[in-house]
Every structure is written in C-alpha cells, then in structure tokens.
Amino acid sequence: MKRTATSLIAITAITLKVSALSVEPIAYGDMNSWISRNIEESAVIGGNTKTLYEVGPTQTINGNRAYINKGGSPWATSNVYAKVAGVTKGSNAVFPADHAGNGKCAKLTSHMESVKVLGMVNMDVMVAGSLFLGKIHEPISSTKNPYSKMEMGVPYTKRPKALVFDYKLDMPAANSRVKSSGFGSKKTLPGHDNAIAYVVLQRRWEDPDGTIHAKRVATGVQKFGKTTPWTNGHAVKLTYGDASKQPGYDATTMGLRDGNNAYYTRNKNGKMVKIHEEGWDDPSATPTHAIVMLSSGSGEPYVATEGMAFYVDNIGFGF
Length: 319
Hints:
Blueprint: E1 16-18, E2 21-25, E3 34-40, E4 49-55, E5 59-62, E6 75-77, E7 80-84, E8 87-91, E9 94-98, E10 104-117, E11 121-128, E12 130-136, E13 150-152, E14 154-155, E15 162-170, E16 176-179, E17 187-190, E18 195-206, E19 212-224, E20 228-237, E21 239-240, H1 251-254, E22 264-266, E23 272-280, E24 289-295, E25 303-304, E26 309-318
Parallel strand pairs: 3-5, 19-23
Antiparallel strand pairs: 1-2, 2-26, 3-4, 6-12, 7-8, 9-10, 10-11, 10-26, 12-13, 12-24, 14-24, 15-20, 15-26, 16-17, 16-25, 18-19, 18-24, 19-21, 22-23
C-alpha cells in the first residue's frame, strides 16, 4: 500500500464507495498482511513455541524480542510477549482469519491466559482481543495499569464523517463475564460483554515540561452485543464537538479520558506519559491525532465474555 510522508496512518490512494461515503482505507486495514512472531516460552511452563500475530508486512520473526511496528504499519494488538517474575509467556488473542473467501480478516477473541509455576507464579488473566492504532511496549512485566504500556493514537489531521469497516460477531450463549487480572480470585459477573468500535480525534499539545494535553475534537463509539453475520461497509458516525450534549451519549465509553482511565503516549523526551484530555474542542477544530480501537471487550481491562469472537476487516475513514 502507498504511504504518505506526513502521517503514520498512511491513507492509500484508492477511494471506495460505501453508501454515501467515500472511504480512505487505513494502511494495512485490509488485514491481508500479517507478521508471525515465534516466542519461546519458559521451560517451567512447558517450553512451548507460541506464535503471536501482528498486522504489517508479511514476515516471520523468531526469538524473544520486543516488537516494534514494521513497514509503516500503524496497527498494534493486545498480543504480547510477557516476562513476569522471570517467566516468559506469549499471549495471543488477535489472529488472521478467512473473510468468507474474500481474503483475510482480523479475528479478535476473548479467552483466559494462565501462567502457573509451583511456588513462583499462579496467574489467570482474562484477555480481550484488541486492535488499535498505536504501539505497545514489551516485554510486559505485570498486569498493572495496562494503558501505561500502550501508546495510543497516531498523527492525523483530517475530519472524516465516520469509521467504516466490515465485521462479524460470534457471541457465546452464556450471559456472563469473567473478571480476572491475575491478582486475587476470579469473579463471575452477570450479563455478557460487548464488542466495541471506538474512534476519537484529538487536538494535542505538549508543555515544555513534557506534559501532554488534549481536547476532544470528535467521538464515535458503538457496541455490538449479538451474533451477526458478515456486515460490509458498516459506518460508526463521528460527532464533532461536545458529544455529551448529543442523544445516546454514554459517559462510560464516550466520556473524556483523564486520571485513572487516561491513555498514554510518548512525549518529546521519549517518556511514556498520560494524555490529559481536558475538554471538548470546538466543532470546527482540526485534530492532530486519531485513536481507533476495535475490541472483543467493551468494559474495564481483564473483564470479558470467554469465547466471544469479533471479526473485522477493510478499516478506513469515511468522508
């Protein structure tokens, strides 16, 4: 795919028509190109080779190495190489899959990852498969404050009307969720989880001391809660300005993010810091960054409905 020099999102020159929208695909958003990473897990947990997948130029990477985005791909996943208490473990919840005979897609799954070593480690962690624009920083050494390990968003200055993608959802019959972060006992919660598509445009700036500030330019969120066959060209509308004044506003998923639920990025000194989202921007504002996340879980980290599978493909911005 052709990439611009001015944006990590790297929009292709191809323009597709979906309903009344012209769609500019996000680089590698057709999900046809994947990187395979072969991680050697510690002998104390079996010494198996675990394959982790990333969206980027087709290649295979062998060895326990921290992943850095390849080939200009703006995508990161919840798949991680972890090293906890000296034990190496791979976690994979995002896979390449078949899109009904039309090339590949991304399959985002919710499942339990277990690490058990007698007298050393005893952890069960519920993982929801997530695909997002940004980077993740490995090796992961703990499950504490997961957002601090994710660099959320990429430079972007356009004003699209919607996020557009194809999707399919397989929802288990169980009407429950499991909460398990690896610390304390597992809990079963009533009600099934939802898959989610989340898109935010921000205008960011940085203080001389390296603090990152932001105002919310636009917001688009949709939850998916029932089994659905392939639906192509689905659009999640973006609302510019103060989304809290719009019908259907949900503060839990659409509200400003700061404090304990703030996203992170690297500042000019290369340090991972919070993005302090301090207010709603003017509806006519021009963004500096785009955050896009698609996930098989819509709640807090380490809470999901085991067995959910959210398939996504052909992701782009609609104008």
